[in-house]
From TrEMBL:
This is GNAT family N-acetyltransferase. Pfam families: Acetyltransf_1. Residues 4-173 form the N-acetyltransferase domain. PANTHER family: AMINOALKYLPHOSPHONATE N-ACETYLTRANSFERASE-RELATED, AMINOALKYLPHOSPHONATE N-ACETYLTRANSFERASE-RELATED-RELATED. Keywords: Acyltransferase, Transferase. The keyword Transferase applies.
Length: 173
């Protein structure tokens, strides 16, 4: 595997993020959800208007992981009012770390996570937080390995189904 680089993304990268989001979300969750629920979620979450708004949100930052000229994953973090829930000025939310299945186990998620930590430190945040589906054992293991602890739960809607996300946080030094 060649070296991985991380680049901050902007509106010019909308199509790349859109394609990565659809591919990685499908690869990760399609086998555990109905085709109808997946189709609805992907259309609502990764349509051009919604991603344009997200990319133009001042309190949200996107980073793309590249292997040469191939985008292989991305990170979305939110601060302040850009956060999906807590909206604590001292925290940074990791909303998405999405990596192509072909690159699982190759440290891409760790590199994107390290970018989130660096961003939080640069923004002088006290802690990171996120929500992760209780059945996504791979992600839960990853976050626990990186020092996250569960502090609450919330409901995530996928189609008509309600799923439980574990809310996790990590205090930064």
């Amino acid at each position: 595997m060649s070296s991985i680089t991380i680049q901050k993304a902007g509106i010019k990268d909308l199509e790349i993020i859109q394609n990565l989001g659809i591919q990685t979300f499908s690869e990760t969750f399609a086998e555990d959800n109905t085709e109808e629920a997946m189709k609805k979620y992907l259309e609502e979450s990764f349509n051009t208007a919604k991603l344009t708004a997200e990319l133009n949100t001042q309190d949200s930052l996107f980073y793309i992981a590249w292997e040469e000229d191939n985008p292989i994953g991305y990170l979305k973090v939110n601060s302040g009012k850009g956060q999906t829930e807590l909206q604590d000025e001292t925290s940074l939310e990791i909303e998405r770390i999405y990596v192509k299945k072909s690159h699982h186990g190759k440290k891409v998620g760790q590199i994107l996570y390290d970018q989130a930590v660096e961003t939080a430190q640069h923004l002088r945040k006290s802690y990171l937080w996120l929500g992760v589906w209780e059945k996504n054992l791979r992600a839960l293991h990853f976050y626990r390995k990186n020092g996250f602890v569960e502090f609450d739960k919330h409901i995530f809607r996928l189609g008509d189904e309600e799923q439980t996300d574990l809310m996790m946080k990590k205090i930064l030094d």
